[in-house]
Structure formats: structure tokens, C-alpha cells
Amino acid sequence: MSDLNTAQAEAKAESRVFYPPAAFVANAAIPSMDAYNALCKEAEQDYEGFWARLARENLHWHKDFSTTLDESTAPMYKWFEDGLLNVSYNCLDVNLQNGNADKVAVIFEADSGEVSKVTYKDLHAKVCQFANGLKSLGISKGDRVVIYMPMSVEGIVAMQACARIGATHSVVFGGFSAKSLQERIVDVGAVAVITADEQVRGGKHLPLKSIVDEALNLGDCEKVKSVVIYKRTGGNINLADGRDVWMHDLVATQSAVCEPEWVSAEHPLFILYTSGSTGKPKGVQHSSGGYLLWAILTMKWTFDIKPSDVFWCTADIGWVTGHTYITYGPLAAGATEIVFEGVPTFPNAGRFWSMIEKHKATIFYTAPTAIRSLIKAADGDASIHPDKFDLSSLRLLGSVGEPINPEAWMWYYNNIGRGNCPVVDTFWQTETGGHMMTPLPGATPMVPGSCTLPLPGIMSAIVDETGYDLPNGQGGILVVKRPWPSMIRTIWGDPDRFKKSYFPEEFGGNVYLAGDGAIRNKDTGYFTITGRIDDVLNVSGHRMGTMEIESALVANPLVAEAAVVGKPDDTTGEAICAFVVLKRTRPTGDEAKQIATELRNWVAKEIGPIAKPKEIRFGDNLPKTRSGKIMRRLLRVLAKGEEITQDISTLENPAILEQLKQAQ
Ligand code: 6R9
């Protein structure tokens, strides 16, 4: 636990405290620690009553539920199961009834800078038409639909339309390769794929539809009967007769009225693949009722959302942050949100700041990796420094995806928030559905680098390897002791893996294992996340399994063996470093460089560009124990460029370390 101890020292060293500004507190949904504590107390005293009250107050139920939490099949917990609702109804129709029909739901800014606005009424009509279109293709409740789309209003429409008819969507990030897409289409058993001809990012057109074609040609995709294509650029694509249909043709004759499919609160709203510690990504299955409840509640509690806010989450709909804080949460809360197609560095690294100025964004939610790269860019080019922009509309900032280092936090707070905006450092995961630990902007004193305290109703704790509670000040393993409504329901098609991954017997089988290490401050009880404790890397806030990358590498005909580890990186948090043994002799010099490039491109093809190793080192062998196990902890030290001081007595081939020390 040496990493945990380092984090412990750092957590101790951080003594700066920042209080919510008085103006913010005055109108905050949770305006004091007393108010926060009262909610926590309510949850502790009557856990089910607490959640039942919130579910009834925040969601529209077509039929009320009679049981709040069913633990009889734990850890397959069920929430509000006999209640009937529809997620899209809660996001759209409810707003039409609440006087928000003409309110702007989405401000869409294209890569080019072109802006279009969609009201709640427009969005409702688009979703209903597309939902009817999906029905006309024979898609119905329980079917799985894969969505492989760019950031667009149409992407949101596709997700909401699935929700409206009770189809379960599985969004695949547009940066994944044909092979990754095919694996997900097969695993989820999709009957349709929704895509676009191309996507536009940073001034470039990138293919989507041709990648779908390639994926479907890889085989085992016979269940896919339809491919629906949103025309984004008009780029050249092939249309397969009887299978492919343009989105605009599909909706042209459809009615803008579509009665929602009322589903059980437990009906799977979506399945989203994420990396785990084996080579195969996990299909994280989420519910409808519990998930939506937490999406709307965290909009209210963490983001203090108000009718006048302009909310901007910069995530992609291909990740869970885009699901909860673009497609569902902001709409369920009746907010106006910005949806951005492009990248933060195009046409220059002032894009985010100029968009905040232009659209008068009030709440801005982004990832530490973006902040760090924009700090660098601003240092190098005064013309795009945030002080050149009017950011006075902002009242709240958020961070998500990875630990935010105190220096980046301070820069964000001072340069973007101008010292007037609370920063909510939100810790959560694909599996948790929504925020778990975060400061409340009108209540919690903030400490840079700490996600502070769990939200009311979330029973976070830190335990040792045997499941025993650890005292504050001692680093350990993060768990959640009670089920909560928006938690993962299962891994699609693999309940055993679900149980083993998240509710392992070593911890008693009934606490949720997050997969992260954490430590609580001795005095404040504040949590600081110390990073993953499994073989999962966090590169620019993207989760990557080391095994996934290793499997991709060894699939290359040149490669005999590969081991992948993370190494700290100033911008991306962690960077991927691969140690590779080729089937032929170890290459050096230019040849090594050339093969490394070839392998990087190979990984991009196998998984996607986000999985490309930053560094590849070649060896005659890998450091192994006498029983043949690769000693990854030694590789981690080598990747960092540090001297090995640990015990290497179990190492069979110590000489190999010298060879692997040198970067190519
Ligand atoms: C929402 C999301 C989850 C992993 C998680 C942890 C890391 C996310 C964090 C954070 C420290 C934060 N993580 N937010 N670590 N502080 N505020 O990112 O989901 O892609 O599943 O990643 O990201 O390691 O376990 P996901």
C-alpha cells in the first residue's frame, strides 16, 4: 500500500480550505452543513423511507410503487420494482406540463461554431417521431439498440427515443474501433445500430457509418436488422438495401405523438460497457427508476440547478458522464444545457472559455485532464488565457473522471471561477450511475484534491483487505455499505462476474467494492481518492483495462508477450506504457521506433486510439517469478524511470531489469 501512504502524506499536507461564497449559500438547495447532516440523518434513521420520499417527490410515476427496496436476491437489489414510469416522459412531457415547453432545452454548438437551439417542445416532438420510427422498424420493449453517434442533438434524441419505447440502449463511444464496436454489438445482442455518416471534430471529418459496416462484417451480428443513419456531413457512405435507412427518411412520415411505454422501475434503461480487470469489457446494466431518481437529485444537490441556469457538461454521450449529466439529468431537471460537438483545442485552446462567454454558461463541468492541458496552453499563449474572456456568468464549477491534483484545482478555482465559484469534485463511476462523493456547493467547505463527503444516503466507508473498517487517517479500500437506487444492477449476461467483481465474498458479499483506494482525513473525515486498486488505468479520465491492451498487443503476429502498466503523466493523469517481447529478436534504434509505431496503430485498430500506448519498450523477456508470473510492480517502477529498491528475490531473471530500464 505504498501509493496509499504517499497519498496519505499529500492529503495531510493540504491545509487550504475554501468556503462556499455567501451569495451562493443564500439561494442554495442545501445551504448549510446542518441541512446536509439532517438529510444524512434522515437516511440513517429510515433508509427506505428516505428514498421512497425522494422517489415520490422527484419522479412522475404512472403507477406508484409498493416496495422500496427488495433485498431478497441480494446483491441483485431491486428498487421501486412494481412502480411504473417512463424515463423519457419524465425528461420531456413533464417539462411540457410544467410550463417549460418553449424553454431552450439544448444549445448545440457545432465544431464549426454554428449554434442551434432546441426547445423542450421541439425535443419532445423529435423524440416522439424517432420513437415511432424505431417502432416502425419492429423495435420494441426489451430490444437492445447500439448507438454509435457523434455529440449531437440527434444522439440525445436516439437515446431518449429508446427510453420512450422501452428499448435498452448501449452507446459506444465514437472513438472505438470496428472490432470494439462489433464485440459490444454481439455481447449485447443488438437488433439495430444508430449511427451517423461521419463525425466532425477539430475541423476533420471522421467516419462512423463505414466503421459500423466494418463491424457488422466481422461476423456474429445477424441479429442486427436495421442501421439508422443521421446525416451529419453528407460524406460518401454505402447503404445496404433493406437494412440501412436515413434518420430523416425514417421520421418524415412519423407522428409527433408517441404514447410512452410504461415500464417497471427495474427495466434496464441502458447497458454501458466499461473496462474491468480482465480482457473483456463489462456491460454495466442500469435501471430506469432508481437511475433517473439519482440523475435528477444530483442535478439538484450537487449542481444546485435553478431554472435560470445554463448547464454545460463537456463529456461525450459515449461515457456515463454524458448519459447522466447530458442526456438524462439536465432534462429531467428542466434545465437549459449546452451540447458541444467539437474538441477543447479547436480552433484554439480558448474554445471552452469563449463558449462560456458566448452562451453565458452558469455551471461548467469538465475533467481534470482537460483543465491540465488548458493550463499548459494558456501558459504558452496569452491570447487564449481565460483572463481574456468574460466568465462572469459562471457560478459553479465541477470536476469528474479522475483525481484532481490540488494545483489544477487552484488554477480552476482562481482562473475560471475567479474565486467566486465553488468547485464540486465529484467522485463516481459508470457503475454508480451518478455522483457518490462530492462537496455540496452551498454547504461543504472545500479542500483542493478531496471529494470531501458522501451524498446523503450514500454509505461510503474505508476498509482493509479483509473488510474491516479502518480509522480515519489510514488508507484502504473504498466500499459502499448499503445499496442505493442508481447502482449497477448486473453485468449484462454475466451475473456471476457481477457478484465477484462488486460484492466479493472476502468482504462478506454484501458491500459494494468500488475498485478504488481512498483515505479519510483524521480531523475532517474528508475522503481523498488514491486511485484504482485493480488493473484499470485512468488515461485522460478514460478507463482502460491493462489486460484489454495486452490482449490487443499479443493479437499482433509479431508479438510474443506483452505487459501493460500505467505511469504518472502531467497531462493525462496516467499514461500507458507497454513492455513487449517480440517473436523475433529484440529490435533497437530506428527499427524499434518503427515497430513501436506499427504496434501503436495496431492497438488503435483493435480497441481505439484512446488505448494507444504512449511508450513501448522491447525486451528479450519480461520480469517473472519462478512460477512464471509477470512482476508488474517492477514494471511500474521501471516505467516511472525510478530505481528498483523492492525485494526481487522471487525474480527468476533479474538481468532483464537492466534491459527494460532504457526507454526506446
Ligand atoms: C464518472 C466516471 C470511474 C473511475 C473511478 C475513479 C475515477 C472518477 C473521480 C475519480 C477521483 C474523482 N474517478 N471521478 N477519482 N476523483 N472526482 O469517471 O466513471 O469512467 O467509470 O471511471 O474514475 O478511479 O473508479 P468511469
From TrEMBL:
TM spans (from-to): none
The record ties this protein, via CDD domains, to: ACS
Task: Name the source's superkingdom.
Answer: Bacteria
One Pfam family for this entry, by name? ACAS_N
- Domain AMP-binding enzyme C-terminal as annotated: residue spans: 548-629
Q: Any idea which residues bear N6-acetyllysine here?
A: 629
What positions does the entry give for Mg(2+) binding? 554, 559
Q: Which UniProt keywords apply?
A: Acetylation, ATP-binding, Ligase, Magnesium, Metal-binding, Nucleotide-binding
In this protein, which residues make up the domain named AMP-dependent synthetase/ligase? 99-484
Q: What is its EC number?
A: 6.2.1.1
Q: How is it modified after translation?
A: Acetylated. Deacetylation by the SIR2-homolog deacetylase activates the enzyme.
- Where on this chain does CoA bind? 201-204, 321, 540
Essential cofactor(s): Mg(2+)
* Protein's UniProt name: Acetyl-coenzyme A synthetase
Q: Which organism is it from?
A: Undibacterium umbellatum
Taxonomic lineage from the root: Bacteria, Pseudomonadati, Pseudomonadota, Betaproteobacteria, Burkholderiales
